[in-house]
Fold this protein.
Amino acid sequence: MKIGILGVGHLAGYLVPGLLREPAFELLLSPRNAEKARALSERHDLPVAPDAETLVRRSEVVLLAVHPAKAADAVEGLPWRAGQTLVSLCAGVPLDSLAAAQPAALARAMPITAASIGESPTSLWPDLPAARQVLAPLGPVIALPGEAAFETATVAAAAYGWLQGLIGALAEWETQAGLPPETARALIAQTTRAAAAIVQARPEASVEALTRDVCTPGGITELGLDHLERAEAFGPWREACDAVLARLEGGG
Ligand SMILES: NC(=O)c1ccc[n+]([C@@H]2O[C@H](COP(=O)([O-])OP(=O)(O)OC[C@H]3O[C@@H](n4cnc5c(N)ncnc54)[C@H](OP(=O)(O)O)[C@@H]3O)[C@@H](O)[C@H]2O)c1
């Protein structure tokens, strides 16, 4: 399948190695920001299109990865055709504002940088087969039933960064308390992965029940969780989710 990437910046640097996990994909990069396009092209031995028109003409699926404020202009006036699919990865940009790309079929998706290692939970709406096929090598594709649900799901993409912040804070504490930094980092990263893995492996149990399960009465997990709950530590996380959703609903 021929896939064009329109907008080769930070996200594209993570998308490309993920997409190349599928040997049947032929990637083409857009030329805007020549320095970044050249660097990405040289790193992965990929062609750069001479212009955006050629990229659209040669691609079956185009992934749009420009700044949200530039998304509508970026698709304007290009030779879109029926049978082609445009997948916008631009946060908070409603599909309506990309109508200039019709008659191409339009979809929105939200990968995260773990796409580079095939671990991105990638939200998708609507669930177009061509879009799903292109996103599959990046990690599990999660179809959403509508655009409002897609915006809500996009909050998780922001939370990915906050979870990395939490890993950093816990690893820093372990380091200050005496562990070698690389040991602290590996320990906390694997602990975070383990917490997520057990939640995924036990769908029959509520997350609340799993949490209670690891809290021995009078034990250390209960001690720390009680402290966090008394300090209302989870409240700011909910408020951060509200703030991000409000921003997304206001246009990214
Ligand atoms: N960063 C992430 O982890 C992440 C995750 C999920 C979704 N996203 C979404 O992905 C999009 C891109 O984010 P980013 O962090 O990769 O931004 P970025 O680093 O600024 O990259 C955007 C690239 O698009 C280029 N560009 C601008 N206008 C263009 C046009 N008309 N045609 C072709 N290319 C054009 C820019 O070139 P110039 O520098 O010359 O302007 C730049 O190289 C955003 O909408 C964001 O919401 C990002």
Summary: The pocket of NAP is lined by residues 6-12, 30, 32-33, 36, 52, 65-68, 70, 74, 89-91, 110-113, 157 (CB under 6 Å).
